[in-house]
Amino acid sequence: MLKLAFILLSVLFHTYAFFFEVVPHEDVCWLQYAKPNTFVGGDYQVIRGGALDIDVIVYSPDGKVISTSVRETEAKFGFNAEMEGRYRVCFSNRMSTLTTKTVSLELSADDLVKDDDAFAKEEQLDPLVHLSRQIVDSLASLQTEQKHSRNRDIAHQNTNELTNSRVLWWSIFEALTLIGASLFQVYYLRRYFEDKRTV
Question: pTM for this structure?
Answer without folding.
Answer: 0.62
